[in-house]
Amino acid sequence: MSLFGAMYTAISGLTAQSAAFSNISNNVANSQTVGYKQVGTNFEDYLTQSNATENQSGSVISLPDYENDVQGTLTSTTAPLNLAISGQGFFAVSETDGTTSTGAPTFATQQYYTRTGDFTMDANGYLVNSAGQTLNGWEVNSTTGVVDTSKLVPIQVSVSNYAPKATSTINLDAGLPATAPAPSTTGGPNVTSQLQVYDSEGTAHTVTLNWTQTSDGVWNAQVISPDDTVAGANGSSPTSTPGDLGTVTVTFGGTTNGAVDQSAAAGTPSGISVDSNDGGTITAPASNTTNAASFTFVANFGQGAQNVTVNLGNYGSSSGTTQYAGTAYQLNGLTQDGVAPGTFSSVTTTTSGDIQANYSNGKSLTIAQVPLTTFDAPDQLQSTNGQAYTATNNSGVALVGAAGSGRAGSLVTSAVESSNVDLATELSSLIVAQEAYSANAKVVTSADTLLQVTLDMKQA
Q1: Nearest Cα residue to 268 out of 315, 235, 227
Q2: Cα–Cα distance for residue pair 236/109, rounded to 1 Å
Q3: In angstroms, rounded to a whole number, what is the distance separating the alpha carbons of residues 54 and 257?
Q4: pTM for the whole thing?
């Protein structure tokens, strides 16, 4: 019985080493596969009987040793949509299971997880990796920027145009000189500011602020735009300069009702009022009734009345538009919230996981955010095709969170994670497995020889 037991044990050794060969072969074959995680081999002894006086031959089985949590080398690429994970976590991906009547893909409900991040954009605008899996993420409201973390959806990039936006607010950060320069023409302004605004169709128009100093710390700011078609109070024709949208008086560090304005430091805004010779439709808040030093003019570039508020800063604040000693006008900053139309140009990723669509007008929209999924026991995930995994009872539940939060690793853009297979180690393991297989085969042949000797004894 011992000879047969030894033979069966050796045969189980052959089977176990064959499994080790299979794992080594798979590792070597996928040594250049992006996101692949190597599989080692563990061996486990099964006893038949073992005590102080007898130890019978048992058997050995092989068990896969998954190394899903072992980091692979990160390799830089030139592809802007490639993503790699440094640390723990997986990308959530979906696989297609058909198409709609219009040819759009449909997705299976099964959730998959992968480290294969060589994503590119397909013909339908979805981000897919080399295994054909579609990247999932959180949707982002393009208007409010709010991230919907309640569900994961396949990320699709729209290549539609960027809609224009009419200018409604201008922020002027400038320094008016206390000693104003002489006007370039008789009766002309001392200082001129050029502002650019957009109408509802996205066409750019030039608006000019003509600053004329009337006394120390007091300026008249006339708003002019030659593109305005219906300028003037109550929609009438301008009373003075063509395109005259109105005039306001801006006071710096001045007085209120004859008394010193204690809230305004010298050189900072202390009041704004509409000039009595206003030739257009313009409004301004009463002096110091609000924190914002601003005025609003009404323009019409052919699409109807357009209200534009010019922010000069805050009353009594040294930021924004000020008047200090000097003879030169300084324009420090000028921003406005209007946008020209734009066409889709590209899509990029950020280290925070934002997927951004970029447009020809220089604007970008965040359309989705890529979170990472972690598990308590990532080595217990079930392997599937394409270097992907599914959750199991032993792996624990999927924990979805932003990159860099909790246990989730960080994202590296324009990079991929190479296979974590070490070829030198695999080749060494191959030699060991080969010798072990040969040794088990030798035991089988030796047991066969001994059994033959036993049979020959009977014949003799």
Answers
A1: 315
A2: 63
A3: 113
A4: 0.76
pLDDT tens-digit profile of 298-322? 888 888 889 999 999 888 888 889 8
Both tokens of residue 440? 């088990």
Inter-axis angle of helices 2-29 and 423-459, nearest 10: 160
N- to C-terminal Cα distance for the chain?
Answer: 21
Tracing tokens 């900072």 back to the chain, one arrives at 268
Strands (E), 216-349: 218-224, 244-252, 255-256, 259-260, 269-274, 282-283, 292-300, 305-314, 322-324, 330-336, 344-349
Of the candidates 346, 349, 347, the one whose C-alpha atom is nearest the C-alpha of residue 413 is 349
Name the burial class of residue 364, with classes exposed (0-12), middle (13-18) and buried (19+) by CB atoms within 10 angstroms of its CB.
middle
CB 163 within 8 A of CB 329: no
Q: For the CA atoms of 353, 359, 363, 369, what is the dihedral angle to 10 degrees?
A: -20
List strand residue ranges (DSSP E) for 67-217, in order: 74-76, 83-86, 91-94, 96-99, 105-107, 112-114, 120-121, 127-128, 134-140, 147-154, 169-177, 191-198, 204-215
Return the SS3 of 262.
Answer: coil
Return d(Cα 67, Cα 44) in angstroms, integer: 18
Q: What is the pLDDT of residues 321-360, one digit of tens each?
A: 989 888 899 999 999 999 999 999 999 999 999 999 999 9
The class that CATH gives domain 169-336 is mainly beta
Helix (H) or strand (E) holding 369, with range, is strand 364-369
Low-confidence ranges of the chain (pLDDT < 50): 231-240
Q: What is the sign, positive or negative, of the torsion defined by CA atoms of 106, 108, 113, 116?
A: negative
pLDDT at position 236, please? 42
Closest by CA to 339, choosing from 148, 140, 142, is 142
Domain spans in the chain, listed from the N-terminal domain onward: 2-67+421-459, 74-162+343-417, 169-336
